[in-house]
Amino acid sequence: MSLIEWKDSYSIGIPAVDYEHQALILLINELHDDLMQRGTNQRTQQFFGELFARVSAHFALEEGVMRDLGFDEYQSHKEEHETLLDGIRDMMDLAEQQGSCEEQRLSEMLDTWFSEHFRNQDARLHRFLNQKKK
Predict the structure, then answer these.
(1) pLDDT at 124 over 80
(2) Helix (H, G, I), strand (E, B), or coil: what is residue 4?
(3) pTM of whole model > 0.90?
(4) What's the CATH class of domain 13-133?
(5) Which residues contact 27 (CB under 8 A, 6 or more apart)?
């Protein structure tokens, strides 16, 4: 079962960013399913490492686009990105200390964060882009 479902409303209108959003959701769902089935400590650390690397790379792309476009809410958007990365780091540390991860907490954090982030921050970026096109 998928943790996060792609919705057309998540699209912001920049093909490279939308593609990465879809790919990131697919990756999270695949990694999450694998983790739920084989939740070994080694697999948990691999999960977090891959998740952190891919999310960081995506945020760098998105933040570069926002800077280039002069997005007026860049700083708050970037801070929200950093909050998610901090949360992933915290869960990585906890999983390493305990030898496992709280899968339910991770699932809830990722699902809530992505849904809210797409609905709020990315929606603002989408509106900004639409206004710039006019």
Answers:
(1) yes
(2) coil
(3) no
(4) mainly alpha
(5) 50, 51, 54
